[in-house]
Write a structure and sequence with these properties.
CATH topology of the largest domain in chain B: Ubiquitin-like (UB roll)
Number of domains of chain B: 2
Strand content of chain B: 15-25%
Radius of gyration of chain B: 17 Å
CATH topology of the largest domain in chain A: Aldehyde Oxidoreductase, domain 4
Distance between the termini of chain B: 63 Å
Number of helices of chain B: 5
Number of helices of chain A: 21
Structural class of chain A: alpha+beta
Shape of chain B: elongated
Number of strands of chain A: 26
Strand order of the largest sheet of chain A: 3-5-1-12-9-10-11
CATH architecture of the largest domain in chain A: 2-Layer Sandwich
Helix content of chain B: 25-40%
Number of strands of chain B: 5
CATH architecture of the largest domain in chain B: Roll
CATH superfamily of the largest domain in chain A: Aldehyde oxidase/xanthine dehydrogenase, molybdopterin binding domain
Helix content of chain A: 25-40%
Oligomer: heterodimer
Radius of gyration of chain A: 28 Å
CATH superfamily of the largest domain in chain B: Beta-grasp domain
Largest sheet of chain A: 7 strands, mixed
Number of domains of chain A: 3
């Protein structure tokens, strides 16, 4: 009799990585202590836009314990410039030196550096560098930057526009002519700071054999190896990038920053390990920001709520230079998805990427898809409000239907939603939320002057950018594959070497679950290695909700190859034909016979001693796969929020939040819900609390620390009910879809709709995020004044 | 230019039960003494304005953000860090164990400070309401979990204690 099959996928396993993190034994980059370690500190620009007239480093260089002081001129031609990795065809790319040379273009731009024997000495000496600046007019707002006469940032970027990207489907103009009405809106997607709790930190260490090791909290270790190698001028195979434990990434730790290059350069030059650690206040002015869009939208509608067409104009603020993926976010990632979960056949969208005197803007949890969902959802909500239609029914009416998949929205060639069941998510969410009951309660309380509101938002997107050959069409200079090596030792235990890179996601647990099910061995017999380019063969890392869909699939496929080879070896050991061998729970058997079974461990040993292998078979049990998906999976979902607005103070209290997300096959529901909780709270934070504030005249960053930038605390956010629907993706062997970005995509429009619903008695139909008490209070006051008048 | 006072001052502290004597600059923060001089890197630095709570330790039995204390002021104090909360080495403190059970950590960076604050919260209020838990943890920022599972973990531990 066969042993029952091992099945871990779908189980809420507790994380295998927790113990070290709970006991303070996690190893983040700042925890790495090396003998003879030198410390780098960076002098940053205090001005948003200025010419550098002179720099005097004499005092700094003569301070005690100083090993090196360098300016942009010292490094010109030696390292850099920093080149983006995603360049939308036709983009004009500003030249970004590692240290500013003649001109600074944002507050926080690197101007000079000091290397010292102690960190405090480096900080002290930075303050001794004297820089003469001549200030120039600055512009930080994306609309202002495109106006005639605006300050110009780069000679090769006329009008401050680096990229123009257009999407067309159907005939919007015809739809507009046939429509009963056109409604228009202008929405702002507020600028955010990703705020990983661990700031960036880099240690570069020269090795005795002439190689260099770089420790960096990287979401994409192999990409960082390539970029650092290319930009600093180190043969890629001589560079080892190690990403140890990472204290959150959210997109911010997948770009190439000046400090990533300066530390390896200096370590090589000085022959000693060099470290740079980013303070939180430094982080706010040097690590990439997110979002920062302005959109104008037109919807051509029928009076029954049918949306015939949409027209979208996006301005995406890129900050002072094009960061790593910066031309792709406001373009491909945003306007391709602007019609959301709705069947809107006529679509016309244009995105412009704009440079301004501000911190470069790049990927932040969802990158473009939160902006897209905000476009689609704010539009349909505005239509419902305008026509006085039910917010649920208008969505149901316009949804892409279950039988429509695979679906290309507006006849798009670039976008295909592989699967989905939006109605299913909606119905499940409405039931869990008690939509009917809550609606009655809201209406009843409103009569007593209590302002509650219900918000709805639906979303879909595509995750795990692939296949590789398609990525060249959009200028994305990397592949879409992920690699996994499954190595079985001679006792039958497995090590998975994965190119994915956990930053708190729990890959040691989830990838083990996938591997264990295929290998049919206990999960305790599996280890997972990530984040070391000397150990892991190759990889693209973790972003774009790709780790389970692409990284997990590569583990699945390489595990299958292990089992296929083991089965051949087992057949030889059992002296039967391979097709008669069954495998389950670590045992190869011949069903219906009394042949004694052979264990996976014995087969593994045979693979390594090689005594009785089938003719022509190489020894060993070790498989490496580069898995390149044929397409991208489409996560989707419906979220509902219940809020109460205090009309006296403008304070919003989130009373309840229900998320129903379709992530295909669930690998680990406990971890999946954790991703939803975190993403939803980041989305609630965007809607209610967080915004990067710049002084529009001077370009000074006003939210320069966690004193001013409002990351939410426990008492500011609600409990979250996270439920799932499993519509398997046909694009990968596991059927899984990404989950990491779902929460931050759905929550902002959901929250805004809830607050607008609560404020509907005042006739307020639009507010821009974040919905802070002053903003709401002012809107209520204005509405009341208007009512009196 | 003003000269920076780099003179060293003697400090004696008890750290996780062991007595240590160190020489530190007057400007050194306790968190840097813990991390750099004592090599206890489980205590983290997440900000520079005492907002995040990642550096929370126990000083004389009370949770304190160790970035708010100069090392010289800690002279004579008894300090417990995350490395010292579990007495027997392998076993977890009840707060650590319940965090594992309820998936109350993701990247783990805020976790040591959060564990310290939860210990303090339950010491002063063994049966907190959800509201009291959320307010009690207001000094610690977590960016990964959305706090949901942290609150569940604390509720579970508090109700277990009440049985």
């Amino acid at each position: 009799m066969n042993a029952p099959a091992i099945r871990y996928v779908g189980q809420p396993l507790r994380r295998r990585e927790d113990l070290k993190l709970l006991t303070g034994k996690g190893r983040y980059v700042d925890d790495i202590k090396l003998p003879g370690l030198l410390h780098m500190a960076v002098l940053r620009s205090p001005h948003a836009h200025a010419d550098i007239k002179h720099i005097d480093v004499t005092k700094a260089a003569s301070a005690p314990g100083i090993r090196r002081v360098l300016t942009g001129k010292d490094l010109a031609g030696k390292i850099g410039p920093i080149v983006p990795n995603w360049i939308i065809p036709g983009s004009k790319v500003p030249i970004r030196p590692v240290l500013a040379i003649d001109r600074v273009r944002f507050v926080g731009e690197c101007v000079a550096l000091v290397v010292a024997e102690r960190q405090t000495a480096a900080y002290d000496a930075v303050n001794l560098i004297e820089v003469g600046y001549e200030q120039l007019a600055a512009v930080v707002d994306e609309e202002a930057a495109t106006r005639h006469g605006a300050p110009q940032l780069h000679d090769n970027v006329p009008g401050n526009i680096t990229t123009v990207y257009k999407v067309r489907g159907g005939d919007y103009q015809k739809a507009a002519r046939e429509a009963d009405q056109i409604i228009s809106l202008r929405i702002v997607n507020n600028r955010l700071i990703p705020t990983c709790m661990e700031t960036r930190c880099i240690v570069a260490e020269p090795n005795p054999d002439g190689t260099l090791t770089v420790y960096i909290g990287s979401q994409v270790p192999h990409m960082h190896r390539r970029w650092i190698a290319e930009t600093v001028g180190i043969p890629e195979h001589r560079l080892r990038v190690v990403a140890p434990d990472i204290g959150g990434g959210f997109g911010a730790k997948m770009h190439l920053y000046p400090e990533d290059l300066l530390c390896p350069y200096l370590a090589r030059e000085l022959g000693a390990p060099v470290k740079w650690w980013e303070s939180r206040s430094e982080s706010h002015q040097s690590t990439s920001h997110g979002r920062a869009h302005t959109e104008t939208i037109e919807a051509a509608i029928r009076n029954d709520g049918t949306i015939l067409g949409m027209k979208v104009e996006t301005l995406g603020n890129a900050g002072a230079y094009l960061s790593n993926m910066a031309s792709g976010g406001p373009t491909v990632n945003t306007i391709n998805f602007g019609t959301g979960t709705y069947r809107i056949e006529n679509y016309e969208a244009t995105s412009r990427v704009v440079v301004t005197n501000s911190v470069p803007v790049d990927a932040y949890r969802g990158y473009g898809r939160p902006e897209a969902a905000y476009i689609a959802e704010r539009t349909i909500d505005a239509v419902a409000r305008h026509l006085n239609l039910d917010q649920v029914e208008i969505r149901r009416k316009n949804f892409i239907q279950r039988g429509d998949f695979p679906h290309r929205p507006y006849g798009s060639t670039g976008v295909m939603f592989d699967s989905g069941n939006y109605q299913g998510c909606l119905d499940k969410a409405l039931a869990a939320f008690d939509y009917e009951g809550r609606s009655r309660e809201r209406d009843a309380l409103r009569r007593d002057g209590v302002y509650r509101g219900i918000g709805v938002a639906a979303y879909t997107h595509m995750c795990g950018m692939a296949p590789s050959r398609r990525l060249s069409l959009i200028g994305f200079d990397r592949g879409g594959w992920e690699s996994a090596r499954v190595s079985i030792d001679s006792s039958g235990r497995a090590t998975i070497y994965s190119g994915s890179m956990s930053q708190g996601h729990g890959h040691v647990t989830s990838l083990s679950q996938i591997g264990a099910d295929v290998l049919q061995i206990p999960i305790e017999h599996i280890d997972v290695v990530q984040g070391d380019t000397r150990q892991v063969q190759a990889g693209h890392g973790t972003f774009n909700s790709r780790s389970m869909a692409v990284g997990g699939s590569s583990v699945h496929v390489s595990s299958e190859r292990i089992v296929a080879k083991a089965k051949k070896i087992a057949a030889g050991m059992l002296e039967v034909d391979e097709k008669d061998v069954a495998y389950s729970a670590g045992t190869f058997s011949v069903p219906g016979t009394d042949i004694a079974p052979v264990t996976f461990a014995k087969v593994a040993r045979m693979a390594y001693v090689g005594h009785r292998l089938p003719d022509g078979m190489a020894p060993g049990l070790d498989e490496t796969v580069f898995y390149d998906p044929t397409g991208m999976g489409s996560p989707s979902g419906v979220h509902l929020a219940y809020v109460e607005v205090d009309a006296q103070t403008g304070i919003v209290k989130v009373l309840d939040y229900v998320a129903v997300d379709d992530v295909g096959t669930l690998i680990n529901p406990l971890l999946a819900a954790g991703q939803i909780h975190g993403g939803v709270v980041q989305g609630i934070a965007q809607a209610l609390y967080e915004e990067v504030d710049y002084d529009l005249e001077s370009g000074q960053l006003l939210t320069g620390s966690l004193l001013d930038y409002a990351v939410p605390r426990a008492e500011q956010v609600p409990n979250i009910t996270s439920l799932f629907q499993e519509t398997p993706s046909p694009t990968n062997p596991i059927g899984v879809k990404g989950i990491g970005e779902s929460g931050s995509i759905a929550a902002p429009p959901c929250m805004v709709h809830a607050v607008l619903d609560a404020l509907s008695p005042f006739g307020i139909t639009h507010l821009d995020m974040p919905l802070t008490p002053p903003r709401i209070w002012s809107a209520i006051s204005a509405a009341r004044t208007g009512a009196v008048r | 230019m003003t000269d920076i006072d780099c003179r060293l001052h003697a400090v004696t502290i008890e750290i996780n039960g062991a007595r240590k004597r160190l020489e530190v600059e007057a400007r050194k923060l306790l968190v840097h003494l813990i991390r750099d001089d004592l090599g206890l890197t489980g205590t983290h630095v997440g900000c520079d304005t005492s907002q995040c709570g990642a550096c929370t330790v126990e000083i004389d039995g009370h949770a304190v953000k160790s970035c708010t204390v100069l090392a010289v002021i800690a002279d004579g104090a008894s300090i417990t860090t995350i490395e010292g909360v579990s007495q027997s080495g392998a076993a977890l403190d009840p707060v650590q164990a319940v965090f594992h059970e309820h998936h109350a950590l993701q990247c783990g960076f805020c976790t040591p400070g959060m564990v310290m604050s939860v210990r303090e919260l339950l010491k002063t209020n063994p049966h907190p309401t959800e509201d009291e838990i959320r307010h009690g943890l207001a000094g610690n920022i977590c960016r990964c979990t959305g706090y949901h599972n942290i609150v569940r973990a604390v509720e579970a531990l508090a109700s277990k204690g009440g049985e």
